[in-house]
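Let's practice the habit of predicting before peeking. Look at the sequence and jot down your guess about where helices and strands might fall. Then scroll down.
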Amino acid sequence: MFEQNVQKVLARLGPDDLVLDVGGWACPFNRAQYVLDAQPYETRGFYRTFGGPPSQGGDREWFRRETWIQRDICAREPWPFADKQFDFVICSHTLEDLRDPLGVCSELVRVGKAGYVEVPSRLHESCLGVERPGQAGLSHHRWLIDIGDNRIQFLQKYHMIHTDRRFHLPPSYRRRLTPETSVQWLWWEGSFDFEEI
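Done guessing? Here is the structure:
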């Protein structure tokens, strides 16, 4: 998560706010009391293996093994939470990976009163050489995403983006991107709109 926004989330939360982190496995948000992810609790902080941050959002984990809910977040049945159960829901660098981001957005709005969503920017995901030469963005990302006007739009990341220069940006463009232009985010209250285009 963009570090300045980590601090904004922490400043926004009150001591009694109930927080859910959706898809936080590799870099869980420590202030969340609940985490919902397909991977098990014991493997949290996966990026630590590669020298990345083990977690974000404070020094201590508020979640526990009992509040780490392991399940497929794209499964068709509702998540095991009540409507508007959480004061704040975080979903950072998860939607671009999923087979059903619209279903996940629907559940985010159902279980949360407010929240924060962060994804790679469309510019970053369209640049060659992020992960390897000749490939745009990251190999496991399924969607190009645009955020604006309280709306998230998903466009399938077709394979042609890698091979046809009409559909991608050169590595030189990526080198000019700043941390702020490499990601995009949405702060939402009550709900937000989402669609596949």
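How did you do? The chain has a mean pLDDT of 94.
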